[in-house]
């Protein structure tokens, strides 16, 4: 038998196997959603998120209201000597300008001009169990502002804090329905990689530091 005949024999064997149906191994199992993780009470979600987020290297800042946000941003800019901070949220940008934060800028439309040391964005949701954020292309500059700048400041409101990733995607389905975003990004902690000599390095594929500014009101 030559190599061509052997090849045809192998292909015929595969074809025969594919034509045979395989019975379902456990037909009596109900097709229902399984809860893999213990449910967290709503009043404990913030504590869970904080623990998970900080364990990943994130910086968590808890604020009572938006007036406290302006103070926190001034302190961060002064502490880290940020000469400018871009803000992708148009509504939040106008608010901060009216609050006389003169270092706040709008993000550039060109990636090569994204030279600011820090960027403020909002998120679609925050996930307590993993300490993650969900972003999408429906947000202003949603494809770029979450990855281009060395420091990422994420604004999270109390009603955006959810239990698990499935809750986040359910929210996205309800929010956008038939106009679902072409890009959804789940960010968990600062950018990091150990591809080179198994040495952990941050900031290679995105921000080297990520801040959560959680606003209760």
Explain this structure.
Helix content is 29%, strand content 22%. By secondary structure, the chain is an alpha/beta fold. It has a single domain, classed as NagB/RpiA/CoA transferase-like (Rossmann fold, 3-Layer(aba) Sandwich). A six-stranded parallel beta sheet has the order 1-12-7-4-2-3, with helices on both faces. Strands 8-5-6-9 form a four-stranded mixed beta sheet. A two-stranded antiparallel sheet has the order 10-11. The longest helix is centred in the first third of the chain and has 17 residues. The termini are far apart. The mean pLDDT is 89.
Task: Give the secondary structure arrangement, pairings included.
Layout: H1 3-19, H2 45-55, E1 59-63, H3 66-80, E2 85-87, H4 90-98, E3 104-105, E4 118-122, E5 125-127, E6 132-136, E7 151-157, E8 161-162, H5 165-176, E9 184-187, E10 192-193, E11 201-202, E12 209-215
